[in-house]
Amino acid sequence: MYNGKLLDGFVVFVEVVESGSFTIAAERTQHSTSYISKEVTKLEERLGVRLLQRTTRTLKLTPEGESFYQRARDVVDAAKAAEELVSGSQVEPTGLLKITCPVAFGLTMMKSVFTEYAQLYPKVTLDIDLSDKKVDVIEQGIDIAIRASDRLEDSSLISRKLFSDTGLTIASPAYLAKRGTPSNPQELSQHDIISYSYAKNPKRWVYEDLDGRENVVDINSRILVNSAQMELEMCKAGLGITRLPRFYLGDELETGELIELFTDYPKHQLGAYMVYPSRKHMSAKVRTFKELVEKTLARGE
């Protein structure tokens, strides 16, 4: 049976995670520290799992706690949004909105979003950082970050998956005519590779073989570059083989300017995500931008 106190436990737990302290969570919710501790303990007992690892100095989410936190944050956000909607307390978006986004993604997928938002909300000042370097969202005071990755690691941040895409291994006809066409990923070790320098390991690419097993391929990174756009241009110039998300490409495959390799192999799966800090109250400027991104780009995933 549903217990009306359950939502209170969600709110307390989310506040503890976001503040990193039982004491600070108690101050923010205007409760005692012992009440906060008891609420978290009751929540853990109800769920039958430990959500937090507690020491005298630190609090750390368990793997179960990380998964539950994302869901609990959604519930708390939805409850607050419903309350604001009914009370009519939402205000007109104003102020500075800081956004970071990969360069190529910003110039293609996000261009119309930026333009439309600026037209809809003239009282918001947009600070758009187009950069392929992954920045610290909290430290840099970023309101929303757009990221393309095969996985996200920031458990302290809220993430919304916008859509899935595939990573394609590509080369120009000129390069393949000169160096030959590799028939499988293992043969990439004999080729010149244009690698993304911000990747976790730019000298190793992971492929799934025809049997569904994951294989790591050591590659010869002849060129390391920190821009997906430059990767694409160097590839088109015949300087080597690269791997890029499909949405970074225009019509190069259709026109024959570039050729996709290993088409019989399972494609590398990537996701486009919207990431933002966990905050007690989402401002109108962040909420409206988030909603516009979801309306424009989200594909029901």
UniProtKB/TrEMBL annotation:
PROSITE patterns: HTH_LYSR (PS50931). Keywords: DNA-binding, Transcription, Transcription regulation. Pfam families: HTH_1 (PF00126), LysR_substrate (PF03466). SUPFAM superfamilies: Periplasmic binding protein-like II, Winged helix' DNA-binding domain. The keyword NADP does not apply. One of its GO terms (molecular function) is sequence-specific DNA binding. Belongs to the LysR transcriptional regulatory family. This is Transcriptional regulator LysR family. It comes from Vibrio maritimus. The lineage of its organism: Bacteria, Pseudomonadati, Pseudomonadota, Gammaproteobacteria, Vibrionales.
